[in-house]
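Model it.
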Amino acid sequence: MSAPAFYPIFLREMLLFKRKLIRIGYLFSAMVVPVIYLITFGLGLGRSVQMNDTDYLSYLIPGLVAMSSMTNSYTWVASALNLNRLYFKSFQILIQAPVPASAVMVGEVLAGMVKGLFAAGLIITVGFFSAPHFSLTPLLGIALLLNCFLFASLGVVTGMITKTHEDTATYNNFFILPMAFFSGTFFPIEKIPDIFRPFVWILPLTHSNIVMRSQSLNWESVACLVILVGYAMLFFITGERLIRNYSE
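Modeled.
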């Protein structure tokens, strides 16, 4: 039985990822920002602050999982695709191969998901040892997969539309970074001023945070899951079309 068309693309990214894993510096770079937040907010405030009927550290861990999976799934795909397209020109070779655009999209997204899950796994491991009431629920696992999928798909979209490598950082500063702070990662969105709350509800990470912190399936978590699926489909279809129509 022949391998799926997306497998060579996925395998190439995994081989490159394997090389990075050998470097100790990569492990630290994947964890440094979430661990700083964990130490600053979680360990500093976790023993004295209660949030949603639990200690703050247990509240914070799911938010850091959502933020880390978002950042790594998105950034690695967007940056790598941008560099391969504009500087190394390896993406043009890939497009000329007899591989459908959907296979390219699936391979890139799956690779981004692996990187996002890896970063999230590091935070979850820390959470088991540091947060007394943190637990890995089925809803957290489902939301984590959806979060990695939709932001890896968004990474493809960004990597395809940017004209320079600096543009990738611009998109990150205007969309990803604000989303990390204002989507319920560090505090409930109910504490955000009413004038900004409608904008916060548009952000996909908001819904990922809600589902990851849900202990059982209710109307709110179901609605958030539907929204996450909608975002995932939108980003995936957009990315696939950009790859299919690529003519640079």
